[in-house]
Amino acid sequence: MSKLHVTTTVNGDEVEYLCDPRETLLDCLRDKLNLTGAKEGCGTGDCGACSVTVDGRLVCSCLMLGVEAEGKQIETVEGIADGYVLHPLQKKFIEYAALQCGVCTPGILVAAKSLLEKNPDPTEEEARYWLAGNLCRCTGYDKIIRAVMDTAAELREAS
Amino acid sequence: MDYHSPASFAEASALAQNATGITRFLAGGTDVLVQLRSELVTPDTLIDIKKINGVHDITRNSDGSWTLGVAATGAEMSEHPELGHDWPGVVEAMDLIGSTQVQGRATLTGNLCNGSPAADSVPAMVAAGVTVTVTGPEGARDVAVENIPTGPGKTSLAKGEVISSVNIPARGENGGDAYLRFIPRTEMDIAVVGVGVNLRLDGDIITEARVSLGAVAPTVLLVEEAARAIIGTTLDDAALDALTAAASAACNPIDDKRGTIAFRTEVAGVLAKRTAKIAYARAKGEQA
Amino acid sequence: MALDHRKSIFNFVGTRPDRPDGLDKVTGRARFGADAYAPGMLHGAILRSPHAHARIVRIDTSKAEALKDVKAIVTRADFAVLPFKPGLEGEFWNVLENVMAGEKALYDGHAIAAVAATSALAARDALKLIEVEYEVLPHVTDVDNAMAADAPVIREGAADYSVPEGMHPNVVRYHESGHGDVEAGFAEADLVIEDSFVTEATHQGYIEPHACLASLGMDGKGELWCTTQGHWYAQKYCATLLGIETAQLRVTASEIGGGFGGKTTVFIEPVALALSRKANRPVKLVMNRSEVFRSTGPTSSASMDIKIGMKKDGTITAAQGIFRLQGGAFPGAPGDLTAMCAFAPYDLTNVRQVGYDVIANRPKQAAYRAPGAPMGAFAVESVLDELCNQLGLDPVDVRLKNAAAEGSKASYGPTYERIGLVETLEAAKAHPHYSAPLKPGQGRGISCGFWFNHGGETSVSLALSEDGSAQVMVGTPDIGGSRASMALMAAEVLGIPYENIRVTVADTASLGYNDVSHGSRVTYASGLATIKAANHAVEKLCERAAAKWGIPVDAVKWEDGCAVPSGPNAGDFDPLPLADITADMGATGGPISGHFEATPEGAGVSFGTHIVDAEVDSETGKTSIVRYTVIQDAGKAIHPTYVEGQYQGGAAQGIGWALNEEYIYGEDGRLQNSIFLDYRIPVASDLPMIDTVIVEVPNPGHPFGVRGVGETGIVPPLAAIANAVSNAAGVRMKQLPMSPPRILAALKEK
C-alpha cells in the first residue's frame, strides 16, 4: 500500500510523516510524532479527548485524516504551555482539581483554550455547551467548569 | 483506499465517474471518517473536495439569495455576521449537529449526502426552500434539497455526480424560519424528531409556510398538510392544534434505540407547534 | 487493627494541596495505557463474535496468516497450554473463557481470535480474512426471560451449591438473608406497598479504552504495561491463563483513565501476552470504543420486587425485597450485594431479602462503583417515597425515624459500629436545598444509600532519603488522586512537608501483593498501611536519636518531624529533625525504611443522603436536573477537594444511569448502541453544579478515621432522581433509565 508524504506544522515545529490515507490525524500525532497527549477515547468524534486546533479551529483529530494536515498549523495539548510557564487554564485545572483520572484533560484544555480565545467572557451555560463534546466521566464537570470560569475572569482582569 | 484532492468539481466528477468500487467525497468528514474507522464503509476512492477554489465561501448574492460553498463548516456559518440574521433556523439546525469540534468540520452538504432521515440541517433546508447545484458528467443542475435523499443512507445522486454549491433563497420581507429537534440530552445526540418551519406573514396572517419533519420517516418530509394548517391563520390555538395534528399524522416512524413510534409521532406534533411559534415571532421581527 | 496513633487534630490531613500528578496531566505528559511503545512492537487486534450465542464449528486463519504483515494469530488453543496449570477452575476458568471463547461464543462481542501485525491497520485488515463457521444457538439477554422455564441454557452446571432445587440452570447463585418475621410485620402496618422495578445494564464509561503493551519471551519471563485498577490481579490471572509462574511476569500499571470497577479484571492483557509469546515480539493491544461497550464490564441489569409496611407515624414494620440480577454469560452478578445493601440504611425489626445471580447472553459483568447497590436502593427508596406520599409524611423525617445507628442490627447481619447516616439526614434537613421552593413542573427527591467499603490485601513501603525526603511505594493504582492522600497521611506521621514526599504506584516486582483499587479501599487500606509504614520508619528514627543521645528508646517521642527526648529526659537535648537523622543514617545503622503488609478489616461502612430537583417537560417527557446536593459521611476527608470530586462524580454517573444510559439489545441479541453517540453519558451541558456536604463521623477502624468515599455516592442518585421525577410528573417511575419515551408513556397512562 502506498503511503502519502505530509508536511505540516505542529506546535510551531515543521514536521513530516508518511501515512496510509486511512490513518487519522490522531494516529499520526500519536504514532508518528510521539505526541501522545491527545487521546483516542471513542474514534467517532463523540468524546473530544483527541481535541486539537487546526488553523485555529477546534476539531477532533480522530475525525480528520492525517493526509488532510498537509500545510496546516496544528496545536495540541503539548503546545499549550509557554515553555516552562503553564497556561492559566493549566494552573487552574490543578488548583481546582478539575481532573481526576486526567485522560479527558488534554482535550478539555485544548477546547477550553479555544473557547476563551473566542469568547473571553462566557456564561456558565456557554462554557458548558462549548465543552459538551468533551466527555468527562470522573468529575461531573463541576470543578472543570469552575476552573474555566475562574481562568476567564483572571484573564479578563489581566488584559 | 486511494486519496485524491482535485482542483475543480469537473475533475472531482471525472474521478468519481471513472472510479471503481466504493467512492466517497470528503468535505468535513464527520460521517465519512466514522464509517471508515468503524469499517462500515471503507471507500476504494476518497475524493477530498476541500482544495477546490471557493468551497469555504459564504456569499450573499445581489438578489439577496445566498450561495454556500460545500466545505463551509457549521462554525463558519454560525460566525457569519449576516447569514444567521436572514436564516436563523438553517444556521441553528446546522449548529445543533455534534460538538464544537464537529462544527469545526461538518458541512450542510455532508449532512445532506449522508442520507440520514435524522439529519438536523435537512428539515431546516427543506423548509427554507434550499436547492443544491449538482455537478456531473453531463454538466450542472439544480435540485431541491428534498429531492436528494431517497432513503436511509441513499441519495438521488448518480455516479460521477457531486454537489458543488448550496443555494439558499433570498429571505425577503416578513419571513422567519426556525428548527427544533428533540434529543434526550442537551447536546451530542442524533435527533429523535426534528422540525423545520419557514413562513411569511402579511400583517399577522401567515401567507406562505413550509413545514418539514426529520427522523419520523425514511426520508425528511415536506408536509404540505402541516403548512396548510397554518396558512391563512394568525397561528392561533386552533391553527396550532391543526398543525400539531397534521405533523403527527404525517409521521411514519420506526421503533429504534432512539425512540418509539408513539413517542416520535407525539413529539413531532409538539415540536411543530413550538417551532412554528418561533418562526412566527421571527417573521414579526420579535426576538426568538 | 490496633488503633494506635489515633488522631483528631491534624497538620496536613484535611488540607488541599495540588496533586503530584497534576503537571503531567495538564501538559499531556502523563502516560496512560495506550501511550507506551516498545522497540520491534507489533499491533494486535481481536476478532469478535457477531452472534449472541453460537457454537464455534471451525476457525480458519490460513488466509490471514498468509499476509506478510501478520506475525501471529492466536485462538483459545494458545492459552493455558504449558505444564503449570493443566486445568482451570472457578473464576480463572471464567476469565479465560471470557478473554477468548472456547467451544461457544456466549455474547455479541466475545473474542474468537486475535492477530498481531506490523501496524494497527494491517492487524484489522487481517481480521477480515479469518473465517469462522458458527452454529447459531438460541439466545436470551433479559434477566426475567433468562429465568423462565423455556429459556435456552447458557451453560450447564454453572450453578453453585447455593441455588435451591428446581430453578432454571441460568440461576447460578442464590442469596437469602434477614431477620424477624416479615409476615407479622406486614400485619402490623397501616399501609403496605408492593411493587416491581426494572433497571437496565449500564457501562462504567471510563473515557480511556482498555490498552496494554505485552512482552513474553520463550523463557517464560514477561513484562506487561496496562491500564488497570489492580496489576497484581492482572499478574496472577495473566500468568495463570498463560501457564507461566506468577513471579516471572512483571506488571506495571499505567496512569489509568478511569475505571469505576471496570478495570478490576483482565480482557486483552492475556491475549496480548499470548500474541507476544507466539510472535516473539512486544505486542500492543488497544480496544476501540465499540469493543469496550460490547465486550467489557457492563453492570448488571435488574428486576426487583419490593414490599414494605409502614405505620402512620412512619415506622417501618417490615421490608422484603427480591432482587434478580443478570450479569452476562458468567456467574458474578451481585444479586447478593444488592440484597444486602438494599435495606442497610434502616433499623428494621423484620426484614427479608433474596438475591439471584442469573446468566444471560451478554458480556461478563464487571464491578461498577458499589456493584449491585444502586439498583436495590432505587427500588427500595422508591417504595419508601411512595409510602411517605400516601401517608403524608416528610421523607427525611421518615428516614430519620428508621435510620440505623451505632448498635443497630444491620439488615445483612452484623451490628453497626459508629456510623454517620443520621448525621447525613440531619444535614439534609438543615440544608437550604431541602427547603428551597420548587417551580411548576419540578419535583424533589431524596434517597439514602449504603456501601460496605472494603479493606483487602495491602502492602506499602516507605523509604527515607539522606536529604530527609520520603518515597512511598503503594500498590493501588491512583484512580482519584490517592497519591496526594497518601502523601498527606505520610506527611502527618513523619512531620515533614507534603512536597517532600513522593508517592509512586509500584510495579509488581517492587512491592508485595496488593488487592485491586476497588471497594473504596485505597484511602482506607493503602492509607492505613502508609501510616503504619511511616510509623515503622519513625520507630527507627527514634532509635537512632536514642542511640545518639544515649537514652532509652522509649524516652524518645516523635513530634512535628523531630525526635524529642521525653519523660525524665525531657528538655535534655534539642529536638533532632528528621533530615538530621537521615543525613548520616548510613553510618548510624543503615537505610531507614518502613513497611507494612496486612489485610485491614476495619473499613467503616458509609452512608449518604442525596437531594435532587428535577424538571419534567410534560409534553416530551424530557427531564432536566436543576439542582443536586450530595451529603455523605467520609469518616475523615484526607484531601477534601478529592472527596468532593468523588461525590460529584458518583452523582453524575447516577444521573446518567437514571435518565439515559442503558444497554439496548436487538431481537438478534446484538448490542445496538456501542458508541458514545447512542450510549448517552451526561455531557457538560446536561448537569448543574453538584453541591457537596462532607460529613465526618470517624471510622474507628482507621487511625485517622477514614471511610472509603468512592462508591457510596452512586448509590442514592437513581432513587433520588426517580423520586424527583415521579413527584414532578405525578406518576411513579419504576423502570430505569427514565428516558423521555418511558416518561411520556407513563404520563399518557396516568
From TrEMBL, chain A:
Transmembrane segments: none annotated. Residues 4-80 form the 2Fe-2S ferredoxin-type domain. Pfam families: Fer2, Fer2_2. Keywords: 2Fe-2S, Iron, Iron-sulfur, Metal-binding, Oxidoreductase. GO terms for molecular function: 2 iron, 2 sulfur cluster binding; metal ion binding; oxidoreductase activity. The keyword Iron applies. InterPro entries: 2Fe-2S-bd, 2Fe-2S-bd_dom_sf, 2Fe-2S_ferredoxin-like_sf, 2Fe-2S_ferredoxin-type, 2Fe2S_fd_BS, Beta-grasp_dom_sf, Diverse_Oxidoreductases. The keyword Lipoprotein does not apply. This is Carbon-monoxide dehydrogenase small subunit. It comes from Ruegeria conchae.
UniProtKB/TrEMBL annotation, chain B:
Keywords: FAD, Flavoprotein, Oxidoreductase. The keyword Flavoprotein applies. Residues 1-173 form the FAD-binding PCMH-type domain. SMART domains: CO_deh_flav_C. It comes from the Bacteria. Gene3D superfamilies: 3.30.465.10, CO dehydrogenase flavoprotein, C-terminal domain, Uridine Diphospho-n-acetylenolpyruvylglucosamine Reductase, domain 2. One of its GO terms (molecular function) is oxidoreductase activity. PANTHER family: XANTHINE DEHYDROGENASE SUBUNIT C-RELATED (PTHR42659:SF2). This is Carbon-monoxide dehydrogenase medium subunit. It comes from Ruegeria conchae.
TrEMBL record, chain C:
Residues 27-138 form the Aldehyde oxidase/xanthine dehydrogenase a/b hammerhead domain. It comes from the Bacteria. This is Xanthine dehydrogenase molybdenum binding subunit apoprotein. Keywords: Molybdenum, Oxidoreductase. Gene3D superfamilies: Aldehyde oxidase/xanthine dehydrogenase, a/b hammerhead (3.90.1170.50), Aldehyde oxidase/xanthine dehydrogenase, molybdopterin binding domain (3.30.365.10). The keyword Oxidoreductase applies. InterPro entries: Ald_Oxase/Xan_DH_a/b, Ald_Oxase/Xan_DH_a/b_sf, Ald_Oxase/xanthine_DH-like, AldOxase/xan_DH_MoCoBD1, AldOxase/xan_DH_MoCoBD2, AldOxase/xan_DH_Mopterin-bd_sf. GO terms for molecular function: iron ion binding; oxidoreductase activity.
